[in-house]
Design goal:
Helix content of chain A: 25-40%
Strand content of chain B: 5-15%
Structural class of chain A: alpha+beta
Distance between the termini of chain A: 75 Å
Shape of chain A: extended
Oligomer: heterodimer
Helix content of chain B: 40-55%
Number of strands of chain A: 6
Largest sheet of chain A: 4 strands, mixed
Number of helices of chain B: 18
Number of helices of chain A: 9
Number of strands of chain B: 11
Largest sheet of chain B: 5 strands, mixed
Chain lengths: ~270, ~450
């Protein structure tokens, strides 16, 4: 059995199945809807997207040829984005290494890794859009679908969920509502289990978030303000109180850069 | 009280800047190291007994000695992906004392002759990456990084490379693929990165804590470092304690401290004075321990003797108000999500195990499923290119073994509850019960 597509005829886009036995009654659950009375033994049963198996993404157009490396003359890339990507490429012996930072930069410009964003990166880096799409699909922080500009990750991994992270995610989602500007999602361990339950608002770690602070935090996220300034991770002192001498601990409290609470707790140990 | 090295006065205001760091004696070790023979640095690393702090615990000096000699492009990669659930020690180091990491990297790069260094930091650590980038700029301006470091003809270039959120990029070969701009799939070993790593060149990959410790080993001397801790697990270790403890956070301990001293001493005990149900001694990939194991010394060999591991030094404590079934589901789902899909046992095994555990959670399982879970876990272990599959199989299998009565009781309870709910629904509809009665 072979499946081929006639490459010579641009209108001949149907998949042709040659010499195949008639389908011997595949499982009903995997069949697309057919008109009443259709003869299953005579037809190659296909889903709307042209495949005999379900599950292809709607965006995958099987009739199109894969796109090659974009022609620099054809693609309009914002100058700032081009400069940023070229800066990344200059750092590595192999410019391909810049793929992840470049896609992240394009995502900052376009809001998500849209086909247009991927084409621009592909144009500057001289890679195929297909390759970059595969990279986007692998990494959690690169968005393959349109999302809000405000990124909120709530850690729901083991340590945080022991301290009520799942409830925080639910209540924060509820408080934010369906604001199209906010992309809120549960995330894998963010590496801040000491402030559990916590979340990352556009890269700023805040926690522990109490139930009473959820509404305030949601409002700050919606209006793009600094999230819970008192609860930000950067203000926290190391939990190991014996690490700091008293003078250092006192000085760091005086500058107001660190959490005064953990200092007072610390003096007992 | 513990001697502190890496965390000593870490909250000093402005320590992230090169002025304060140098005032505290920073970069002196790098200057000394550049005057030493390369071999003698590796020898003192071997003498110090330092073992890799990222999870595997491989002797650092030995790893560095695997890098071939000769003139070629060699690479130093700092693994700052820190994606093991429960681990957050590197974050504290990079955020508050980035120059000690940079200094350690300069020394390590000189020792193995690497001329390019990359810090692969996870994409979620936005603030930490910015701090590191600023620190590297400062070090470049001060002449510690560049084409002719301190006029000694040593060349080193250093960049921060931000990841984009994938647990597997903490695995060293997965990290290399991500650093080369690909999907982060682990590679077949051998060849090991020391021979063929980044861009097929010799590559030394070490964790943030390991590289930072190198600075302090030169400072205090290999013998003094070896004297800390216990035999075969020398020196201090940063541990991240989290979960249901009163004072979660990072602590620096000498190895050999008992689990009880850590959890009840440093971390202040369990919230509301409840009992320990289980604890992960080295991140969520390590087989779990129970409250009977609290008196184990916390070092590589004692934990290996208890069939678990020190891993990244992340202690996650769950108290007895939690259900072990929920913890198992959380753990397994994480690895299912993060499996890269390259090797079948891991890709399918993590998925099957998660499905079975969810069936157990929802009361649709039989006790036989526990045996199937154990069997699936057994077939994952050792059969993949990397240890992600093992990282799920080990804790889940240990939970099923150690808490089998809990699982069986939960299966029965959930089944009874399900039946009761179903009957209540049916009787609310009324028709079926009447139909049975009519028969």
């Amino acid at each position: 059995m072979t499946i081929r597509r006639d490459p010579l005829d641009p209108n001949e886009r149907e998949l042709v199945r040659e010499g195949a036995p008639a389908p011997a009654g595949p499982r009903r659950a995997y069949l697309p809807d057919l008109p009443e009375g259709a003869d299953l033994t005579q037809e190659v049963v296909r889903f709307d997207h042209g495949s005999r198996v379900p599950g292809w993404r709607p965006a995958t157009d099987l009739t199109k040829d894969p796109s090659g490396v974009p022609d620099p003359a054809q693609v309009d890339v914002p100058a700032a984005l081009r400069a940023e990507i070229e800066d990344f490429m200059s750092r590595y012996p192999d410019s391909r290494s810049a793929a992840i930072p470049a896609l992240a930069a394009a995502q900052r410009v376009h809001g998500w890794c849209s086909p247009q964003a991927i084409e621009q990166v592909a144009c500057v880096m001289q890679l195929t859009p297909g390759y970059l799409t595969a990279v986007v699909g692998f990494y959690d922080m690169l968005e393959a679908k349109p999302v809000g500009r405000q990124t909120v990750y709530v850690c729901t991994n083991i340590s945080c969920s022991l301290r009520g992270a799942d409830a925080l995610l639910e209540s924060l989602k509820l408080a934010i509502g369906d604001d199209p500007d906010v992309n809120i999602r549960g995330f894998e361990c963010l590496g801040a289990c000491d402030i559990a339950p916590m979340c990352s608002v556009n890269g700023v770690y805040v926690g522990p978030v109490d139930d009473t602070e959820v509404l305030e935090l949601a409002e700050q996220i919606r209006t793009a303000q600094d999230p819970l300034p008192e609860k930000q991770l950067v203000r926290r002192r190391v939990a190991d109180v014996a690490a700091n001498t008293d003078e250092v601990a006192r000085a760091s409290r005086d500058t107001g850069t660190l959490d005064p609470v953990s200092f007072d707790e610390g003096s007992m140990a | 009280m513990t001697n502190h090295l890496l965390f000593e006065n870490i909250d000093e205001p402005g320590l992230a800047s090169i002025e304060v760091y140098k005032r505290r004696g920073g970069y002196q070790m790098a200057e000394q190291a550049l005057a030493m023979a390369r071999d003698s640095i590796i020898t003192s690393l071997k003498d110090s007994g330092l073992r890799g702090r990222g999870g595997a615990g491989f002797p650092t000096g030995l790893k560095a000695s695997f890098i071939p000699q000769g003139k070629m492009d060699k690479y130093l990669v700092c693994n700052a992906d820190e994606s093991e659930p429960g681990t957050f020690k590197d974050r504290e180091l990079m955020q508050k004392n980035p120059h000690s990491l940079i200094e350690g990297m300069i020394i390590a790069a000189y020792a193995v002759g690497a001329n390019k260094a990359f810090i692969f930091i996870r994409g979620e650590y936005v603030q930490q990456a910015e701090i590191l980038e600023k620190a590297i700029e400062e070090a470049k301006a001060a002449g510690y990084i560049g084409s002719n470091i301190l006029g000694r003809g040593v060349e080193l270039d250093m960049w921060v490379h931000r990841g984009a959120g994938a647990y597997i990029c903490g695995e060293e070969t997965g990290l290399l693929d991500a650093l080369e701009g690909r999907r982060g799939n682990p590679r077949l070993k051998p060849p090991f990165p020391a021979n063929q790593g980044l861009y097929q060149g010799p590559t030394l990959i070490n964790n943030v804590e390991t590289l930072t410790a190198i600075t302090y080993i030169l400072k205090v001397g290999a013998d003094a470092y070896k004297a800390m801790g216990v035999e075969k697990s020398s020196g201090t270790k940063l541990i991240s304690v989290s979960g249901n403890v009163r004072r979660p956070g990072n602590y620096e301990i000498e190895m050999g401290m008992t689990g009880r001293d850590i959890i009840y001493g440093l971390a202040g005990g369990i919230e509301e004075d409840r009992e320990v149900l289980l604890w992960f001694p080295g991140g969520s990939s390590s087989p779990v321990l129970t409250k009977d194991d609290l008196d184990l010394p916390y070092d590589y060999d004692s934990l290996a003797g208890a069939k678990t591991m020190l891993g990244s030094g992340a202690i996650i404590v769950a108290d007895d108000s939690n259900s072990v079934v929920d913890i198992a589901v959380k753990t397994a789902s994480f690895y299912k999500h993060e499996s890269c899909g390259k090797c079948t046992p891991c890709r399918e095994g993590t998925s099957w195990t998660t499905k079975m555990l969810k069936r157990i959670q929802s009361g649709e399982a039989t006790p036989m499923d526990l045996d199937v879970i154990s069997s699936v876990c057994e077939q994952i272990m050792g059969n993949c290119l990397c240890v992600l599959g093992d990282a799920m199989a080990m804790p889940v299998a240990s939970m099923v073994t150690k808490f089998r009565p809990h699982f069986e009781a939960h299966i029965e309870q959930a089944r009874v509850a399900n039946e009761a709910r179903l009957l209540a629904e049916l009787s609310a509809q009324g028709n079926v019960l009447q139909g049975i009665a009519a028969d």
